[in-house]
Every structure is written in C-alpha cells, then in structure tokens.
C-alpha cells in the first residue's frame, strides 16, 4: 500500500473526460481524507455483531447477472479481486458468466526498500499469485486477465489515461465491478472513481465492493451508502475456497525479512474479509 504523508487535501474535479487536482490545506490524508487506513482497524466482532449487516438485502446472482453476460472486474492490485470478490467470482462462474479481470497495476510498490520483493520481482510475482488463486477458486478457465500497467501507488494521478484505456475494451453490455470509490486506499478510490464515472457516462451497470472500508469504517458509518448495499452470502465450500485462494498471495501475507516489516495483509485484515458474506454497493445512475 502506498504511503502518503497527510498535509494537504486533494479534490478531484471532473470536466468531460479530463481530471485535474485542486490542492487545499487540510489535516486529513491528501487523497482519502478521513478514510485513511491506520492501526488495527475496526474489530471483526464489531462487524459480526452489527444487526444492520444481517438485514442487508441479498444480492441475487441469477437476477442481477444474466447468464453469459460479460463481467469486468477491476482490481487495483493483483489480490483485490479475491480479497473483495472471491465468493462472487465463484458464483459468477457457476452462473455461466464470462469474466474479464483487469489488473489496474501490478502492485509493484507494496514493499518499499525491500531486497526480497523489489519492484521488478513483484511485477512478475503478483500477477502469478493472482493466477494461482484463480485456479484454487476453480474458475481460471472462465477468466481472461488484462493488465493496464498503471503505476502502483499513483493511480490517482493517472485517472485520465486510465479512463481512455477503458474505451479500447469495454463493451456496450458489460457489467462493471470495481473497488468502492471511497474505500480508503488511494489506488482503490481512484479506480472506483474512474470506473463508476465511465459506467455513468456509458449507461452501464456497475457494482462497488468494500475491501479496506471494513478497516476504517464503523458499523452504520455514514461515510458508506448502506442504503445501496447488497449482501452476497457464501456457502461453506465457497468460503473455504476463498480462504485457500488468499494463501496464494505469499508476498502479501508473509513478513519481509529484508526490511523487518510485518505482512502487508495483517491477520485482522484477512479475518475481516474471510467471512461468509461480501458486501457490494449498487448506486443506480440511470
């Protein structure tokens, strides 16, 4: 995860297909504001004990995703597709949907100053970890992987080129799925903003998945539009496959002996996203 020292706030202004940043003094994180990923985050028990989570409407795969309709899933880094959507991926495959997995970056900046995981190694390792995870999920044959090769940790400043890349491969009947545009990680938020903006302009269905929001948010947090939230329940087998797939991301779940840094994904983080449910936001734009 890219680290940015909070000393200014950056506002994104849309003007047609162009983006520009307006920087203003603020005590919050310069991109994600008050959604910064810090400390251990909200406990799993807090989420499990929140009645609001139990009463969310169900996401019905058969009704929401017509069989054989193509689904484009945007992962800011190779692992986000499993962390956020490991259950959904399995259910889409069972539903007969062709899936395009778009790696926005190759996640090369996850280990600053590391000799064990320098950027040139991660550029190879992380996409391979993703491919292995898809095999564990049992869906590799139904997934086409596309890499956009944007710079890890700097997607916010590449939004205009990101948007232009979508024109080359998004089709008129695609359903798009992206990270939440206020997920708390700069790359996740930039990805969510670009994809939802494209969906709105081209009148495409678009879903957003919560990943890092489980860390910084609290139950009933007003920064999340819970009225648009849908809960996808996983079977015991689907959850087991998702949990096994997460173990494929060795670079992210093991300590870095060359820097003495702990794993990028802590045990608490993995526990929060290894539950028998996933939550998606559907905000109608039409």
What attributes does this structure have?
alpha/beta; disordered N terminus; 286 residues; 19% strand; 34% helix; Rossmann fold
Brief overview, please?
This protein has 286 residues and is an alpha/beta fold.
Describe the 3D structure:
The radius of gyration is 18 Å and the shape is globular. Helix content is 34%, strand content 19%. It has one domain: LmbE-like (Rossmann fold, 3-Layer(aba) Sandwich). The protein has a seven-stranded mixed β-sheet with strand order 5-4-3-6-7-9-8, sandwiched between helices. A two-stranded antiparallel ribbon has the order 1-2. Strand 1 and strand 2 form a beta hairpin. It is built from eleven helices and nine strands. The longest helix is centred in the middle third of the chain and has 19 residues, at 119-137. The model is unreliable at 1-26 (pLDDT under 50). The chain has 286 residues and is α/β, with parallel strands linked by helices. It comes from Psychrobacter pasteurii. GO terms for molecular function: hydrolase activity, acting on carbon-nitrogen (but not peptide) bonds, in linear amides. Pfam families: PIG-L (PF02585). This is Glucosamine-6-phosphate deaminase-like protein.
């Amino acid at each position: 995860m890219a680290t940015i020292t909070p000393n200014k706030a950056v506002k994104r202004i849309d003007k047609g297909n162009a983006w520009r940043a307006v920087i203003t003094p603020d005590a919050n994180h310069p991109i994600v504001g008050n959604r910064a990923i810090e400390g251990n985050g909200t406990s799993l028990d807090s989420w499990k004990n929140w009645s609001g989570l139990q009463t969310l409407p169900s996401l019905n795969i058969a009704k929401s995703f017509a069989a054989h309709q193509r689904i484009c899933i945007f992962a800011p880094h190779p692992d986000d597709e499993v962390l956020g959507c490991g259950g959904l991926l399995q259910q889409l495959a069972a539903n007969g949907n062709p899936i395009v997995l778009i790696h926005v970056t190759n996640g090369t900046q996850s280990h600053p100053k590391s000799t064990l995981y320098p950027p040139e190694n991660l550029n190879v390792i992380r996409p391979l970890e993703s491919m292995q995870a898809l095999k564990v999920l049992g869906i590799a044959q139904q997934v086409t992987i596309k890499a956009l090769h944007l710079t890890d940790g700097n997607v916010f400043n590449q939004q205009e080129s990101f948007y232009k890349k979508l024109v080359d491969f998004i089709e008129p009947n695609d359903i798009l799925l992206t990270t939440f545009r206020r997920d708390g990680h700069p790359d996740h938020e930039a990805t969510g903003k670009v994809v939802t903006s494209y969906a709105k302009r081209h009148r495409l269905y678009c879903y957003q998945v919560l990943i890092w929001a489980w860390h910084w948010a609290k139950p009933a947090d007003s920064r999340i539009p819970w009225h648009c939230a849908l809960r996808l329940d996983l079977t015991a087998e689907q959850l087991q496959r998702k949990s096994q797939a997460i173990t494929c991301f060795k670079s992210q779940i093991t300590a870095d002996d060359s820097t003495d840094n702990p794993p990028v994904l802590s045990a608490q983080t993995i526990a929060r996203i290894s539950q028998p449910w996933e939550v998606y936001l559907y905000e109608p734009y039409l």
